[in-house]
Amino acid sequence: MLLSACSKDNDGGPDGGNNGYPSAVKGTIYYDWATEGILKVSLPEGVGSAFIPDDSKLNNFDVSRDGKYKLTVVNEQTLGDYPIRFTLSDISNGSIVEEFIYRSPALSAYSKGYLSYDNSHILVLSNDQEDGITILKRNGEFVGRIHDINGEELGFNDQRLWLPGNALLIVHNNYIIRLDPPYTSGKLLKEMTYEDWGDLAVNPAGNQLAVRIANHVYTMDMDGSNLKQVTTSNFKESVPEFSPDGKYLLVGTEYRQTGPFGWMWSLKIIPNDGKEYNVDPIAPNSPDVIPVFVKGKNKIETAGGQMIWR
Prior knowledge:
The protein is 0% helix and 46% strand. Strands 23, 24, 25, 27 and 28 form a five-stranded antiparallel beta sheet that branches. Strands 3-2-1-29 form a four-stranded antiparallel beta sheet, with no helix packed on it. The chain is mainly beta. It has no helices and 29 strands.
């Protein structure tokens, strides 16, 4: 039985009794919350635990799509030096698989890394436009770097995502572009003609996108067709993430600003079936909306940083 209505102070799990989730909802959700570090909740059991302790030097983390490996990117900056340590480890036993030091062209202390679908490469991004997009083998060996599209530098906030086959999806201005290896040319997938949009996500199969347009989440096919609004409320939804099998969407509901650079949101899951779901924090929700609860707790989970579902 699924919860059909909830509020910020609801005191039950997804089925009203903290007894787990529907058996079809699987995988592990990883999310950053305040000073608690990176947390995780395993589905369908609903068991929550710590994943990475709070660390101000952690630039970001990633988990391989098969759930076997953890990538951490740590700023080890010292006076006059800007080393970034990339560590790929086996989640099952903690053993280090690969480890290397990276120094960005612009000497950015805030480089971040993301694993390719097949775990063979790492996409490196930084907070300096000079760095562009760097592609490394997972042992740190340099593969290539992309600075611009048609002579125009990539924007600071432009998204860059992996696709199957080590292809890249790049947001540049209002364009969504696909680049296949060796990344010397791209294909325009869609021009977005909206004033406010972003937070793009790709499904595991690489044939569907989720995106925030204004205050709500939409899905569309990879070529930009079949655009459908899938969330609604009196608030804002953002940061969508596909489930490992692509059948569900994790969305950040009641998305709100907490400071000059801070945001937070509540976690809810909806079926990825093209239907529109009300995920309001106060009004009754649509049937089949699943609030993310950790077993033993009585409040919906919140996040305020990186969030992924593997």
